Amino acid sequence: MQVRKNQSRLLLFVSVVYFLFSSLLSAQVSRLEAIHVVEIHTGGVVENVSNVITSDQGTYYEVYGRVGGQLFVGWVEPVHGRLLRVYHERDSNLHIMYQWPGVRVVAHRGGALLGPPENTLPAIEKAIEVGADLIEVDIRQTSDGYLVLMHDETVDRTTNGRGRVDRLTLDEIRALAIKHEGKGIIRVPTLKEALGIMKGRIDPDLDYKEGDISKLIQLVRDTEMIEQSTMYGSWDRCRAISQLEPRMRIRPTADYPLQVPELARTLRPSLINMDWHGVSEQAIRLAHTHGCQAFVNCLGRADTPYCMEIAVEAGADYIQSDRPDLVVEYLKSKNLYRLSDKKTGAVATPLQSERLKYPFR
Fold first, then answer.
1. Residue 7: predicted pLDDT
2. Could you tell me if 78 and 58 are in contact, meaning their C-beta atoms sit under 8 angstroms apart?
3. Which of 53, 55, 56, 57 has the alpha carbon at shortest distance from 34?
4. How far is the C-alpha of 120 from the C-alpha of 81, rounded, in Å?
5. Per-residue confidence (pLDDT) for residue 174, from 0 to 100
6. Contact 245, 269 (CB under 8 A)
7. Which of 133, 155, 280, 358 would be 159's cystine partner, CB 3.0–4.6 Å?
8. pLDDT digits (tens, 9 = 90+) for 21-40
């Protein structure tokens, strides 16, 4: 009887080890998938790919190829499938054209728990001060056609007034005072004012709750911030945005991993939005291997240092939080904060390129 128990325990142990080992193997991006990542981002033809390399600069596949006769080298991280670097040959030397910039920090509603009231100019200034890379703001249209920062349908929660935003004029909204615990009066800002203090300092992430989408896009064009702006919305909203302005980065949501390939093929976004319940290593890996980056929301009950850490370990490229200061602190401790300048770390939208048509070949 004891022998049989020992055999059962041994069998259970072997099964568990096999399962864990198989999971680790299946979690790694293959050499073929690494090739596809580099193909998408360069538009070139791959000629060779190494096995996984580990050096003092990290762990990666090294992918070689040519585009228009020009040699390029791409590095792909083997667990999450993230594109780490791209070099192009020029004057017989390799020059870095892209370097992953580290995990980007997004201040939700301007960093709603940083102190200043949400969706205000002081909130934007505070988000910049703590080191956020993007600032998410909510936008609604007034009855006379102006765009203002406001999350709710009404002004009731955040101001000393009452009424729906779309039934109030700009002057009526500007006459209201935003509720806050500090001194002085804070007014509801217009989007134009907000973009004015963001420009050259922090990138806007725009959540357009309600209004004329063409009006918003024209305002962003007028401020010359199209290529710096990200826009969140439903699949239909993101499709409309891309048709009106292909240069603007869109951020549609994938609720589960197998939606990621469909999003990549139909909407061709630069970012895939993942609410906390939809975040997984598989979803993030699929985003990377389909030419997108993973935008992870650590909000509500998930807005904790532990969830932020888990999201980073899973391969997130962006972390959105009401406490961006905590995200910055953690990323600095792991050397994952602002690894490149905006020139070599700029977020591209490779899937919008005319050279890419599904299937790629």
1. 56
2. no
3. 53
4. 37
5. 97
6. no
7. 155
8. 444 444 589 999 999 999 99
Closest CA to 205 of 182, 228, 223: 228
Cα–chain-centroid distance for residue 280?
15
Q: What is the pLDDT of residue 182?
A: 84
Cα of 175 vs its chain's centroid, Å? 35
Q: Which residues of 172-210 are buried (b: 16+ CB within 10 A; e: fewer)?
A: bbeebebebeeeeebbbbbbeebbeebeeebbbbbbbee
Confidence class for position 345, pLDDT limits 50, 70, 90: confident
- Amino acid occupying residue 187: R
Kindly report the three-state secondary structure assignment for every residue of the chain.
CHHHHHHHHHHHHHHHHHHHHHHHHHHCCCHHHHHHHHHHHHCCEEEEECCCEEECCEEEEEEEEEECCEEEEEEECCCCCCEEEEEEEECCEEEEEEECCCCEEEEHHHCCCCCCCCCCHHHHHHHHHHCCCEEEEEEEECCCCCEEECCCCECCCCECCCCEHHHCCHHHHHCCCECCCCCCCCCCCEHHHHHHHHCCCCEEEEEEEECCHHHHHHHHHHCCCHHHCEEECCHHHHHHHHHHCCCCEEECECCCCCHHHHHHHHCCCCEEEECHHHCCHHHHHHHHHCCCEEEEECCHHHCCHHHHHHHHHHCCCEEEECCHHHHHHHHHHCCCCCCCCHHHHCCCCHHHCCCCCCCCC
pLDDT tens column, 270-311: 999 999 999 999 999 999 999 999 999 999 999 999 999 999
Cis peptide before 252 (omega within 30 of 0): no
343 bridge partner residues? none
Q: How many residues in total does the chain contain? A: 361
51-to-29, 46, 62, 350 alpha-carbon distances in Å = 11, 14, 8, 25
| Gap between the Cα atoms of 134 and 203, Å rounded | 5
